[in-house]
Amino acid sequence: xxxxxxxxxxxxxxxxxxxxxxxxxxxxxxxxxxxxxxxxxxxxxxxxxxxxxxxxxxxxxxxxxxxxxxxxxxxxxxxxxxxxxxxxxxxxxxxxxxxxxxxxxxxxxxxxxxxxxxxxxxxxxxxxxxxxxxxxxxxxxxxxxxxxxxxxxxxxxxxxxxxxxxxxxxxxxxxxxxxxxxxxxxxxxxxxxxxxxxxxxxxxxxxxxxxxxxxxxxxxxxxxxxxxxxxxxxxxxxxxxxxxxxxxxxxxxxxxxxxxxxxxxxxxxxxxxxxxxxxxxxxxxxxxxxxxxxxxxxxxxxxxxxxxxxxxxxxxxxxxxxxxxxxxxxxxxxxxxxxxxxxxxxxxxxxxxxxxxxxxxxxxxxxxxxxxxxxxxxxxxxxxxxxxxxxxxxxxxxxxxx
Length: 402
Hints:
Elements: H1 2-56, H2 68-75, E1 83-87, E2 92-95, H3 106-118, E3 125-132, E4 140-151, H4 155-220, H5 225-249, E5 256-259, H6 260-272, E6 280-285, E7 291-294, H7 296-313, E8 321-329, E9 333-340, H8 368-379, E10 383-389, E11 394-401
Parallel strand pairs: 6-8
Antiparallel strand pairs: 1-2, 1-4, 3-4, 5-7, 8-9, 9-11, 10-11
C-alpha cells in the first residue's frame, strides 16, 4: 500500500539525511583541525628558525647561549601546545606539560614517552647549529642537528576532535526523539482508527441486522412472505456492500473504468431517500463520458461520507441546498466540488477535519473524512481539501485522475 511505502521512504530519507549531515560535520571538523594545526606549525617553524639563529650566532656551539632562556620560558610556551625539546645528548626539555611524577623516575619517563607518542601525528621540527664561511655569508658551511622539537595539539584541537562525535550523538538522539514522537502519534492515530472502525462497523451493520431480525419475526407471524423476502434480499445486499467496503480498505483494490457523473448521481439518489425532504440536491456536470480508473465501492463510500456531512450540516435548515459540480481540469484531472449552505466549519477545526478521531459531532467517531482522504489520496492518488467554509457556504473539492 502507498502508506507503507511512504513510511519506508521517510525512514530512508531520515537515514540518508543523517549520513549526509554526519559526513558534512566530519569533513568540516577535519578541515578546521587541519587549519589550526597548520597555523601552529607555521608559528613553530618561525620559532625554530629564530632558535637556530640564536645558537648559530656564536662561533662555538653553546646551548646556554644568550636568548635561549627567553626562547624556553617565553616564546615556545606562547604556542600554547605541549612541547618536548630533545637535544643531541638525549636530554629532554618539557614545555606546557604537567607531569604528576618526580623527574628521573621510571613513571616520569613512561609518562613522557606516552606524551611523545601522542605527538606522532605532527612531524617533529629540527633545530640546527650552522657554521658559516664568513660573517657576511648566510650560506651554512656545516650544519649539525641540535634539537628535535616535538609538539602536540592545543586544547581547542583536542576538544574539536571530539566535537563531531558529540554532534552526531546529539543528532542521533534528536532523530530518536523525533522518530519516537512520530511513532507515538501514529500509534495514537491507529488506536483512534481501530476504535472508529469498530464503531463504524457496528453502526453500518446495526441497521440491516436489526431489519433482518424484524423480518424474521414477521415471517414467524406469517405475514406477506414475498414482500418480506424482497426486503431481506435488500438488507443482505447492504451487508454485502458493507463487508466489501471494509475488506477493500485493507487490501489492494481492483481498478476499473468508472463513469464519474453516474457514480455521483447514484450516491445522491441513495442519500436523498434518507435525507430530510427540505434539502434540494443539484448535480451540474460539465464533463461528457469521462471515465476514471478506480474502485467503485470505495469511491461510492467516500462521496457518501462527504455528502452525508453536508446533509448533517444543513439538517436544521428549511432551505437546505447541496450542489455537486463536476468539471474537467488541465493535466487530465476531474474536479468534484460538493457545496452546501449549512452552518460551516469553525476556523479552529479546519486543519483537523481529516485527522483520525476528530469530530465536531456529539456522536461522531471522527472516521468518515479520514477514511475518505485515504480512499481518495492513498488508493486513487487524487486530492481532497476544504476550499472554503463560512456560516452560509462550505465547499469540499476532490481531484481525480482521468
